[in-house]
Amino acid sequence: MYTGIIGPGDGASEAECATAYEVGRLLAQAGAVVVTGGLDGVMAAASRGAFEHGGVTVGLLPGSVREAANPYLTVSIPTGLGELRNGLLVRSCDGLIAVGGSWGTASEIALACRTGVPVFSIGGWRFPQDGPVHVDSAEEAVRRLLALKPRRRG
Amino acid sequence: MYTGIIGPGDGASEAECATAYEVGRLLAQAGAVVVTGGLDGVMAAASRGAFEHGGVTVGLLPGSVREAANPYLTVSIPTGLGELRNGLLVRSCDGLIAVGGSWGTASEIALACRTGVPVFSIGGWRFPQDGPVHVDSAEEAVRRLLALKPRRRG
Amino acid sequence: MYTGIIGPGDGASEAECATAYEVGRLLAQAGAVVVTGGLDGVMAAASRGAFEHGGVTVGLLPGSVREAANPYLTVSIPTGLGELRNGLLVRSCDGLIAVGGSWGTASEIALACRTGVPVFSIGGWRFPQDGPVHVDSAEEAVRRLLALKPRRRG
Amino acid sequence: MYTGIIGPGDGASEAECATAYEVGRLLAQAGAVVVTGGLDGVMAAASRGAFEHGGVTVGLLPGSVREAANPYLTVSIPTGLGELRNGLLVRSCDGLIAVGGSWGTASEIALACRTGVPVFSIGGWRFPQDGPVHVDSAEEAVRRLLALKPRRRG
Question: Cα(C141)–Cα(C5) distance, rounded to whole angstroms?
Answer without folding.
Answer: 11
